[in-house]
TrEMBL record:
Protein name, as recorded: Transcriptional regulatory protein FixJ
Residue ranges occupied by any HTH luxR-type domain in the UniProt entry: 146-211
PANTHER family per the UniProt record, alphabetical: DNA-BINDING TRANSCRIPTIONAL ACTIVATOR DEVR_DOSR (PTHR44688)
A Pfam family recorded for this sequence: GerE
Modified residues (4-aspartylphosphate): 65
Organism whose genome encodes this protein: Hartmannibacter diazotrophicus
Keywords assigned by UniProt, alphabetized: DNA-binding, Phosphoprotein, Transcription, Transcription regulation
GO terms, biological process: phosphorelay signal transduction system; regulation of DNA-templated transcription
Gene Ontology molecular function: DNA binding
Domain Response regulatory: 16-130
Amino acid sequence: MTQEENGGTSHGVGGRVLIVDDDEAIRDSLTFLFSSRGLVAESFASGEAFLDRAKDDAPVCIVMDIRMTGIGGIECFDRFQQDGGTDPVIFLTGHADVPLAVEALKKGAFDFVEKPFNDNALVESVIAGLNEAQTRYMRTADRDALATRLKSLTPRERQVLDHLLEGRFNKQIADGLGISMRTVEVHRSRVFEKMGVRNAVELSRLLVDGSL
């Protein structure tokens, strides 16, 4: 596996650019281009090397040649998605391969750029991809954090939470669960504390926004 890393932070954009291309000259050129624009870049000489990399622990935008020896760009993209990959992928394509690129867009690719590409246009697309990757990464992190909070609830606290989400008052919850109102108040307070909210309205909004 060939990997080259370089970069800076002049754009203020988080994450890295992963270059996947079997042409060494293209890899070197793109690594230099992104580095010169203040972007962190890492390159892979094949689709196989890219798929075998360690799991990304930060947002990435992937720039991938649509035609490569071994695993081609479309197959590599398919496998990436099958492995749970959600980071934006930008395909580099020749004019004759535009239909393939359109197919990739339908499958969820972020963008495609025709060769010979304009440096500024490619960098702008990559920056947009990195911003999207950051948004997706934060959304996933928020969902994971919310799931952790929910798991911290005891079975009884989870029951009280469910009743709260149904808009029930303390007395209704007490009658439904066969416990005292005082016990409901204690569980309710603990639910709010563990979930980091002040009331049932905030609790409902948190769970709706978190899609859980």
